[in-house]
Amino acid sequence: MSALNDRVKTSSGFYVTKEAPIATDNPIPTPSVPAPDILRCAYMELVVTDLAASREFYVDVLGLTVTEEDENAIYLRSLEEFIHHNLVLRKGPVAAVAAFSYRVRTPEDLDRAVAFYTELGCRVERRAEGFTKGIGDSVRVEDPLGFPYEFFYDVEHVERLAWRYDLYTPGALVRLDHFNQVTPDVPRATKFMQDLGFRVTEDIQDEEGTVYAAWMRRKPTVHDTAMTGGNGPRMHHVAFSTHEKHNILAICDKLGALRLSDRIERGPGRHGVSNAFYLYLLDPDGHRVEIYTQDYYTGDPDNPVVTWDVHDNQRRDWWGNPVVPSWYTEASLVLDLDGNPREVITRTEDSELAVTIGADGFSYTREGDEEKGFKLGNTL
Amino acid sequence: MSALNDRVKTSSGFYVTKEAPIATDNPIPTPSVPAPDILRCAYMELVVTDLAASREFYVDVLGLTVTEEDENAIYLRSLEEFIHHNLVLRKGPVAAVAAFSYRVRTPEDLDRAVAFYTELGCRVERRAEGFTKGIGDSVRVEDPLGFPYEFFYDVEHVERLAWRYDLYTPGALVRLDHFNQVTPDVPRATKFMQDLGFRVTEDIQDEEGTVYAAWMRRKPTVHDTAMTGGNGPRMHHVAFSTHEKHNILAICDKLGALRLSDRIERGPGRHGVSNAFYLYLLDPDGHRVEIYTQDYYTGDPDNPVVTWDVHDNQRRDWWGNPVVPSWYTEASLVLDLDGNPREVITRTEDSELAVTIGADGFSYTREGDEEKGFKLGNTL
Amino acid sequence: MSALNDRVKTSSGFYVTKEAPIATDNPIPTPSVPAPDILRCAYMELVVTDLAASREFYVDVLGLTVTEEDENAIYLRSLEEFIHHNLVLRKGPVAAVAAFSYRVRTPEDLDRAVAFYTELGCRVERRAEGFTKGIGDSVRVEDPLGFPYEFFYDVEHVERLAWRYDLYTPGALVRLDHFNQVTPDVPRATKFMQDLGFRVTEDIQDEEGTVYAAWMRRKPTVHDTAMTGGNGPRMHHVAFSTHEKHNILAICDKLGALRLSDRIERGPGRHGVSNAFYLYLLDPDGHRVEIYTQDYYTGDPDNPVVTWDVHDNQRRDWWGNPVVPSWYTEASLVLDLDGNPREVITRTEDSELAVTIGADGFSYTREGDEEKGFKLGNTL
Amino acid sequence: MSALNDRVKTSSGFYVTKEAPIATDNPIPTPSVPAPDILRCAYMELVVTDLAASREFYVDVLGLTVTEEDENAIYLRSLEEFIHHNLVLRKGPVAAVAAFSYRVRTPEDLDRAVAFYTELGCRVERRAEGFTKGIGDSVRVEDPLGFPYEFFYDVEHVERLAWRYDLYTPGALVRLDHFNQVTPDVPRATKFMQDLGFRVTEDIQDEEGTVYAAWMRRKPTVHDTAMTGGNGPRMHHVAFSTHEKHNILAICDKLGALRLSDRIERGPGRHGVSNAFYLYLLDPDGHRVEIYTQDYYTGDPDNPVVTWDVHDNQRRDWWGNPVVPSWYTEASLVLDLDGNPREVITRTEDSELAVTIGADGFSYTREGDEEKGFKLGNTL
To answer: Where is the VOC domain (chains A, B, C, D) (predicted)?
Structure first.
């Protein structure tokens, strides 16, 4: 469901509105208590089936820094990070996501998180000693959308290695940028995230108001997480930032040199949504990792919300390069608080893949262009 | 005055502390009322003596976008901006700064600004129609440090041109990043800015605790403004961001091609403080403009505060290249609310220029290195 | 036909040999007279059907410099060029290539060109006043492979604009790099070009010795021209260089901003062959233009010849991204000296497209890998 | 001595002529026999006093690849090289240059080298087994200018690591680009090098015709070597190339991180001469190494020769940044064939340092500008 009134078309082909043009007929109730004050996405806990293989990918290939490791888990951080980790690789029987973890502003925000999710009837677990090394008092929940979310304030500080250029590789990852979640009902998920204090920055819709994806933020970038329409709850990707575009190209070059080019799923390219430069990789378990750089500041409360037409062939790739189908269909399982995979619910609304490619779907390079200009041959 | 206890030396040679290691014996009283909630530095109003010459510099050379102009003023913005302007060039008899303007979170924050500065005994002026085109209800003050500060929420939205790559130049400026102010007593100024809600991210001190400069932020970058020790109140520079380092090099190349290389005052180089890549230019009136890219995220409330030793030759330039003396001594006048230049008060504490170069001063490349390693020949 | 004896496999997966591992059973006779001493590929004369549309593409979008123009033709050069032009756009009824033009070392080399091609029984035409503006005494031939080749020494010098950074765009084209020709029998064509003084730098073969393409040079880069196996004689592309990779990305970004992303046929990416970074565009007539940067020095007479396995999925794109089928099948007609399109002869040997993709073909990421690792989903 | 007739001033401020505008009253006789056909500068043999310290600099910091090493010498190459080495570090008592080594086109060119230098009365030594590992039959001479030159064709091939992106560092050096020699009489040296088959590409002169430096090439870049006016024979620097400018910045950043920023003598910056991006470093013995990227193609026989006015402040640095005095005055000793340092002869003509800076000298940003615009404060 959408509310596209008052939208303005820009000279770049997308629309802007003052408020997120998304509404839902099936909302999760808004809690009566305040949401925790979330600072930013802070780390993801990934379950991997072969710890050595994952270490090779994240440490030897991507160059993340090992803060700490043991036989069951590896704690990794990016070069500009000062908290203990941005990624936990934990050995387990089924590749999945154990936690999307956010840092909150104060210790008291953990009490707020408990109250917020408890009122929603969610399962909530709090551990004073934390769920992973390096993190203290933490709250984990099974959220109303089925995702395992974590909140923490207390964390071990480690050295920010930003100035340690002797440690940089050509593809150096400097920050965790965002998560991306797959969920069947994007408007419902978006409304819930707005209640949690997130603000929408961009979305993809069609003229009937079907919403295919929405991006939302706490820190003033395009997103801390996004909701991608599809069978879910699943994890679409976790994204790390580089300083410049050539750093992303260097990762591709290195994967070629290591004869691992089949780990490159999509890209590199320029996103329409977010205006960032991107690359999607698949880790040894098929977890998707985005490498990302140079989106824009979104911190003003009236930051214009951008809406892309799902038929605009430049929305996902500004250069009109095709999106590989697996990027739409594949994603990682998520775990409940007992460590069991959550059941995946099928999306019933239109799929972006179907409406943009193939028998019934279409895309255009120039709106209204009768020839479409869509690079079909590149896809089929 | 400083509080360097509990500082930890990093492997990069600087120190980190949990809280800003700055204290003052001569504080401006902390108001009893809350400070306005400042979002970010938003624009600077510069008085220029030759509007055509300034237009050539900022529009034709630097490529800022003209939102609006008339015979007396030009309103300019960067490519990723959606508010009316980031820079106002206003024709006037004396080159100076008329306003350091910040955007606040809500309209009600203007009431807070009035109360905050009124309690401090400052001159405060509020105009519902704004002081410049494109801006609505605004408050201007002569702050306790002598600077003309502005606060506003209401602003005309214009198109964010971030996706308009057909308009990009090789040196495209995408954001306003920060201001930099010259003031005689840095600890006193820092304490005042902390009361206004800023948080210190980095500073430069000596072992006696003399503070030579401090950087402080509202948005989660290294700074929205910095306090540089020197004769003041004066404006040291205003800084715009590029996406990548080559964009900054392209500006240098273009200035060479236009035979305007003498507009390059210092750089390009890598800062120690902020870890950003930088360039300093002088506009036709001698107003200093920094071009800046790639500092780091500072948005967590416990972001480690970095303290540099004033004798560390890599603090101002990570490559140890010398700082040209004019960069320390020259700065722009600032105006009071009647448009008259403020009197400049002489700094009485040690000057950074003096303690690092010349007869009594020294710098080192490696702390404790007897040979110093300072690139003296490059400076004297 | 191939001679792969004595080849050595490198740690990068391709092979090197001392001499070009290409032989032909059907050679064009080697002339008894010496070949002209060719310096470099110098310009291409393109016939375009809509001069204004082509001007918009090459001048407004790609930023080539207009040396001279009239109602029938436009003479364009790159920023580092000092001869009159690197590209002539001439208005005509059928989109085609009128000349692949090479500069020779001395005026006397024109006599050698006449003798060389005359002995081969080719049609040869010499004009003291040149065939285009800016060029003096020139020889044009219909070569034994059916291509219109030109040779000249005398040329008007124009200003090299390399230092004019005020004229640079973000995607600035600085040099003409190479041509690429489509011909049915690559070994036969290669042998002929070797007689003309070219040296092979790289090729693509299969284990039976079928040659799919070969790259050859006069100036010490990977190529001045390449022979691509396919129905020919046709022109595959003409390539211009940028300084850096971000310049190529900027061209993509600009095409997106202009809603011309469907002009991007393939890329950007990293070539296996040549190790260069690339992008392929289609001009308004469908002429293919490559943007290219950073291959390697090949000027030593014993420069190792690189042979790629046609089944190596990183040969055409080091990152394993798929080659769009049109890139293999589409090419521009070439003209005879009367301006009539040459008949296109069908290639009878295996096609690279067929042997690498689809029912019978295959590619691998890692040689010997049973799972292949080929990114099939991305292509089919 | 100069021949500046027929020079044309360009829009970039320098002059172009058809032939090198340099003449000498005191020429070395032109041999009656042909010069060897030189391909390119191939390697330098450096004597270093502390092999471990030099290894740390060239291998650990700069990332050159060790082809082979023993207790007395280290053989290093760049990533795109296929011959055994581009640099030999040989342990010895006095830091100096033992050989400027060039590769020739054929084995027979060694006979030509012997005849050429023998006729000039130079000391000539030929060794069938080579003077260093990896090189076969070689000729070393003490040339008429006092420099130890080597010529070879036979060389061991090693793997070109250009595609091995897993081995690249952020500051990867991909090619040896050129040498630079200090000699008292530049016109005399230039004339001799022209006899040896070099062609001048650029020079620096004053209006009286004093020549301060000249650049000359065999391969089609701006130079294989340059003659810098000063006390000589000495070696000014040896230069390696990177692919892009950010690679050079990364070397600076790494030196800062290693607290070795005092190894940065000058730069980074954009040269006027050559239009390349540059950085000058000093190795542990004070041997100067340039890191260099992106000059232009010079391979045509009528490539325009560029002459810069010595008073043009953008000739050495296009951005007008000052040249540190040590860059003009310091250089490495060169050895005779017995391994003894050659005597250094004082230059008697004007020094570039003196005529451009200080009491009698001057520079301008804009020719004819009365205010000069020279960034004096930056230097004195």
So the answer is: 40-154, 175-294
* Count of domains observed in chain C: 1
Statement to judge: residues A82 and A68 lie in one domain? yes
Of D166, D250, D254, the CB nearest to A254: D166
Strands (E), chain A: 8-9, 15-17, 38-48, 65-69, 73-77, 87-91, 96-104, 124-127, 138-142, 148-152, 175-183, 199-205, 211-217, 225-229, 234-241, 264-270, 277-282, 288-293, 305-309, 332-334
A152, A167, A182 — which closes off a domain?
A: A167
Whether A253 contacts chain D with CB within 8 A: yes
Chains that touch A (3 or more CB pairs under 8 A): B, C, D
Query: Is A118 inside a domain boundary?
Result: yes
**B329 phi/psi in degrees, rounded to 5:** -100, -30
Q: Which helix (H) or strand (E) holds A193?
A: helix A186-195
Spatial separation of the C-alpha atoms in residues A323 and A351, rounded to whole Å: 13
Residues of chain D contacting A250 with CB distance shorter than 8 Å: 165, 168
Instruction: Give residue D300's domain range.
Output: 8-30+171-318+338-351
How far is it, in rounded angstroms, from Cα D207 to Cα D355? 12
Q: Where are the beta strands (DSSP E) in chain B?
A: 8-9, 15-17, 38-48, 65-69, 73-77, 87-91, 96-104, 124-127, 138-142, 148-152, 175-183, 199-205, 211-217, 225-229, 234-241, 264-270, 277-282, 288-293, 305-309, 332-334
C259, A13 contact by CB (below 8 A)? yes
B367 Cα to chain D: minimum distance (Å)? 9
Residue D264 phi, psi (nearest 5): -80, 110
Structural domain includes residue B69 = yes
Do both A159 and A175 map to the same domain?
no
**Phi, psi dihedrals of residue A89, rounded to the nearest 5°:** -100, 115
Count of other CB atoms within 10 angstroms of residue C360: 9
Residue A286: how many other CB atoms lie within 10 Å:
13
- Tell me, yes or no, whether C67 lies in a domain: yes
Lookup result for tokens 């807070």: B112
Helix (H, G, I), strand (E, B) or coil at A91: strand
Q: How far is D344 from chain B (nearest CA, A)?
A: 23
- Render each residue's pLDDT in chain A as its tens digit; 380 residues: 445 567 899 999 999 999 888 999 999 999 999 999 999 999 999 999 999 999 999 999 999 999 999 999 999 999 999 999 999 999 999 999 999 999 999 999 999 999 999 999 999 999 999 999 999 999 999 999 999 999 999 999 999 999 999 999 999 999 999 999 999 999 999 999 999 999 999 999 999 999 999 999 999 999 999 999 999 999 999 999 999 999 999 999 999 999 999 999 999 999 999 999 999 999 999 999 999 999 999 999 999 999 999 999 999 999 999 999 999 999 999 999 999 999 999 999 999 999 987 666 789 999 987 655 555 444 43
Contact across the interface for C318 and A252, Cβ inside 8 Å: yes
Q: Cα(A206)–Cα(A226) distance, rounded to whole angstroms?
A: 18
Chains near C (3 or more Cβ pairs under 8 Å):
A, B, D
Asked whether residue C374 is assigned to any structural domain, the reply reads: no
Q: What CATH number has the domain bearing residue D306?
A: 3.10.180.10
Chain A environment of B12 (Cβ under 8 Å): 163-164
Structure-token pair, residue C2:
């191939």
Distance (Å, rounded) from C-alpha A191 to C-alpha A227? 11
- Closest alpha carbon to C162 in D320, D307, D297: D297
CA distance B246 to chain C (A): 9
Task: Let me know: does A217 contact A301? Beta carbons within 8 Å.
Answer: no
Calpha distance D3→D122 (Å, rounded)? 29
Asked if C292 is an interface residue toward chain D (Cβ–Cβ < 8 A), one would say: no
Residue of chain B with shortest Cα separation from C166: B254
Q: Which residue has the tokens 């490198």?
A: C10
